[in-house]
Amino acid sequence: MPDTQALVNDFLNKLKKRKIEGSQATARQTAELLRSVISQQRVPYTNQAGALIDAMKVVGEQLIAANPVELAVGNIVRRVLHIIREEDLSLTTAAISGMNLSAVSDDDDDGDQDDHPVLSAAAVAAAARSTLRPPSLHTLLEDMPDSAAVPHTSSSGGDSEGKSKSADKSTITRKLKHDVIEAVNELIQDIITCHEQIAEQAVEHIHQNEVILTLGSSRTVLEFLCAAKEKKRSFRVFVAEGAPRYQGHLLAKELVARGLQTTLITDSAVFAMISRVNMVIVGAHVVMANGGVIAPVGLNMVALAAQKHAVPFVVLAGSHKLCPLYPHNPEVLLNELRSPSELLDFGEFSDCMDFGSGTGSPLLHVVNPTFDYVPPKLVSLFITDTGGHNPSYMYRLIADYYSADDLVIQRKPTTGN
Amino acid sequence: MGAQKKGATRVSEDADALARQPLQAVLLADSFATKFRPITLERPKVLLPIVNVPMINYTLAWLESAGVEEVFVFCCAHSRQVIDYLENSEWHSQPNFLVRTIQSHDSISAGDALRVIYERNVIQGDFVLISGDTVSNMSLTQALQEHKERKKKDNNAVMTMIIKRSKPSPITHQSRLGTDELFMAIDTSTKQLLYFEDKADHSKGTISLDKTLLADNPSIVLHNDKQDCYIDICAPEVLSLFTDNFDYQHLRRHFVKGLLLDDIMGYKIYTHEIHSSYAARIDNYRSYDIVSKDIIQRWTYPYVPDVKFCGNRSIKLERQGMYRASEIVQSCSSQIGPFTVIGYGTKIGNDTKVSNSVIGEGCTIGSNVSIEGSYIWDNVTIEDGCELRHVIVCDGVILKAGAVLKPGVVLSFKVVIGQGFVVPAYSKVSLLQQPTVEDSDEELEYADNSSGTVEISSIRGTADKLNGEMTPESSETHESELGSGGVGYIWSICEGGHEEEWRHSIAPIPADKLAEITQTIDDDHEFLTQDGTALPPSGELKSDSYSNLSEDDEMEDSKDDSAYFEKEVEATFLRAVHENVKVEHVILEVNSLRLSYNMTSSDCAGAIFYSMMKLSLETPHASASELLQNATNVISTWQRLLKSYLPETDEEIEVILKFEEMCLESGKEFSALFAQILHLLYDKDLIEEDAILTWANEKEGADESDKVFVKQAEKFIQWLREASEEED
């Protein structure tokens, strides 16, 4: 336990100090941290899933509070919670269907005999509830009978189940933890490979002799463009430099290194250039449940320009960037203001900030927001690792990844600081 | 974060240290200054909140993120408070960041602190030296690497100073942080620091550099727009240097300047300039104000109020740089202006206006209050209709209805300001009485801190008593010096301190003050242009070590020097007289003074003669004849001393000139005796006739007023002339 606590603290520190940059890295590290927390977590005899979920929530809450702007942390915490619930359910259903003979149970007591009716009742109730809610398109398409059959039980249902199945606890416990860790490993794998999965779709979207515009730098975009290039597509790329951090310069360098015809423009030239562009492809910080995008600063301008000239505006986002929250949600911090030193040189402007004379109030205020919010109506298409989606479809996609119970990570009044 | 107090595993540091030398830091949790009095009488400076977070947290958070693994916090004044705070803070339970405290009660300066640390033998390699009131977000990697590479090539590169560009004000000659304008000469290619002056004389607008500086270095750049961040990367040798030179007190004034002047050991100091990151030290009230504003304006990102970098409460940033914590009760009609921070649980009443201010936690602010540019700490009660502009209000202060705080006021802990009382500008109010030893003079800040700490403990007791007594008293209408119901003492502003008060105050410099300074500068310029060609006062010899950057400045400088020198010689002489020191020893001492001040023997002769005359003047006497008797006694007793500095006629002339000057200025009583004493000197063979005659000849062409003494001695001179003719 102290080990995990030290790990958690370490990660918390990094998050607080804004030391981890990029949602992919954050997501991966969060998932890895949660995996080790799960593996270290001692699970009680009763209510294993509940215990795991509680442990996740305690850690998750800290992580989210550490950097509320990095929504990927919350996404991963919710994903892991969802995984625990799903695995728990699949085990339970397996228990109902195949275990009435209690063949698997190596436990000795007879209590399970009495418990079974209760258990099945709960499961039936859950199943009944699930029939009221149509299974999502995604789960229908992909053959996942276990999770699809009984999705999203309420926490009360989970509790009753937990108590009821004390019988075959040890097996289930071991099995549950094992399965959860397996699933989290898969999640980590997904996060790591999301670039390739997105990039695979590149040829379907980028056509011969097209002009693509992008702003700033995103690894997803870089991989996407390079994948198209590798498939012998010839096209040109306009890169807007992405002030004030000018990451576009880095992207341009990378693209040129891979042999792509690249044009670097200033952010302010985007509107002038957009009429020549066939498609805008950008990365995102987070995709909200309504299909809105929190993206590097300047993208709203690009999106508006694209709309004006009816240029498709395509957003690439790994599934870890899908956030189950809506932008009006009070938990969502839409922006972070970074240091003004990225915009201007402190030394040069130090006389503007000499509060020793005059009224003593600062006349110069430098605002350096990190993100823009692009409303869903400006986005033409999302490309995630599962394929291309319309903004209005986002909430369904999100329903596959997250459980409705976890949208608000419970806040305990005593631990919040 | 409740659960994380469980004993975090600590790596055994012995094995670790040997393996790869963890980066260490020395954090001085005492500024060894008195600039923040009276607040610092009750709480150490590093625990004073800046934007609602104790200063030391900014420093520690930065050190932690800069990759420092072990910090030695040196506590001196109020060490208990600092240690208690650190033990209860989250810094104590960080896995990869060890915070250790070193306690000392008798250190009175940074130099002492480093000597104590040296004795403890805890520093193994290069370390970061920082004081606990520094806010920074710079990355140490590059500076550290540069430092290490230099160290590898040249073992004498012992220190790297972090500097940052920041333009000083052309009018007040102080940086935006309220410190004096700083002059640095830096070698452009190696970044070696060659010259450091933080106490330049601004009245003339000139500084002087050593000529060799220009001769030895192919290119140097002289900067006045660099700010010293007080972050140093030091080699372990620095500690031993402090131990070897036990008189080093101040890190800059003694250590840096000492190393720069000392060419025997050849230690070198380098600079590292930071551009995009921030670093500043909170040195005085002005810098407290400025750094607070920089933090609110996010220059210190990620150490800004809405990032929880050290377990502070979560605060949300709203439009126009307004930061609000949770649980704030705010009236609809109140107006919270831009660049404001409001702490957890604060209540703000109707029609209250707040702008450019920081308000702490749990404050209660009434209706119709106006707060502008002020720093209000925790649990302060401000009743209706108060007015606060550019002030600091510490914890637990109560402002009764209608109280007005003028700009620059500092209210220390738990002061109560009476109803409708107007606190005058720049006053400091405390429950503790002002220490009787007045020591706010900056130069003394190191010497007097010991007395300060002692005082504190003694005052402590009385303060507690005072508190106990005051509380019942304040309930009855009792007229104190802070209005009815007020509790506390207004500290008197020390003599001459008022001039400086506006420089370091929390309040901006008033426009009329600025105009006044501009006016005097202009006047000075006129004066200079008129007087620029005037000859230096007689007898001031130009010393070779100065290059002629500016005529005026040099004169100024050497004049200063010779004044000090004279004083020193006089002190030596008086000691010799009182303690019956042998003449040989006095000569030795004076010689060493002469060398250290780079003076000529004529200066010595002048100075010794001056001291002798002064002594005889100060010996009680009733009449001129008694005075003459005194002078005769002194001269005959010490003639050997004086004689040893009179090898040539030139020196003898110097003595006569000195005497003449003295008769005109400090020792008017001698003017009547001029001829007699001159004769006496001649009799004692101290002054040859050649000297007297040369002097007389020189004076031939002088003004009438100058010739007073020549005339007085005319007979004597006449006699001398005749005597010499006879000899011929």
TrEMBL record, chain A:
By its UniProt entry, which InterPro entries does this protein fall under?
eIF2B_beta_subunit, IF-2B-related, IF_2B-like_C, NagB/RpiA_transferase-like
What molecular function terms (GO) are annotated for this protein?
Answer: guanyl-nucleotide exchange factor activity; translation initiation factor activity
Subcellular localization(s) per the UniProt record: Cytoplasm, Cytosol
Q: Which Pfam families match?
A: IF-2B
The answer on whether this UniProt entry bears the keyword Calcium reads: no
Q: Which keywords annotate this record?
A: Cytoplasm, Initiation factor, Protein biosynthesis
Which family is this protein grouped under?
Belongs to the eIF-2B alpha/beta/delta subunits family.
Report the protein name in the record. Translation initiation factor eIF2B subunit beta
UniProtKB/TrEMBL annotation, chain B:
Q: Which GO terms describe its molecular function?
A: guanyl-nucleotide exchange factor activity; translation initiation factor activity; translation initiation factor binding
Q: Does the keyword Cytoplasm apply?
A: yes
By its UniProt entry, which InterPro entries does this protein fall under? ARM-type_fold, eIF-2B_epsilon_N, eIF2B_epsilon, LbH_EIF2B3/5, NTP_transferase_dom, Nucleotide-diphossugar_trans, Trimer_LpxA-like_sf, W2_domain
Q: Where is this region: Disordered?
A: 528-558
Q: Where in the cell is it found?
A: Cytoplasm, Cytosol
W2 domain location is: 559-728
Print the keywords alphabetically. Answer: Cytoplasm, Initiation factor, Protein biosynthesis
Q: State whether keyword DNA-binding applies.
A: no
Q: SMART domains annotated for this entry? A: eIF5C
Q: Which domain of life is it from?
A: Eukaryota
Q: Which SUPFAM superfamilies has this protein been placed in?
A: ARM repeat, Nucleotide-diphospho-sugar transferases, Trimeric LpxA-like enzymes
Q: Name one GO cellular component term.
A: cytosol
Instruction: Give a Pfam family name.
Output: W2
Similarity-based family: Belongs to the eIF-2B gamma/epsilon subunits family.
Q: How does it assemble?
A: Component of the translation initiation factor 2B (eIF2B) complex which is a heterodecamer of two sets of five different subunits: alpha, beta, gamma, delta and epsilon. Subunits alpha, beta and delta comprise a regulatory subcomplex and subunits epsilon and gamma comprise a catalytic subcomplex. Within the complex, the hexameric regulatory complex resides at the center, with the two heterodimeric catalytic subcomplexes bound on opposite sides.
Protein's name according to its UniProt entry: Translation initiation factor eIF2B subunit epsilon
What organism does the UniProt record list as the source?
Acer saccharum
- Tell me the organism's taxonomic lineage: Eukaryota, Viridiplantae, Streptophyta, Embryophyta, Tracheophyta
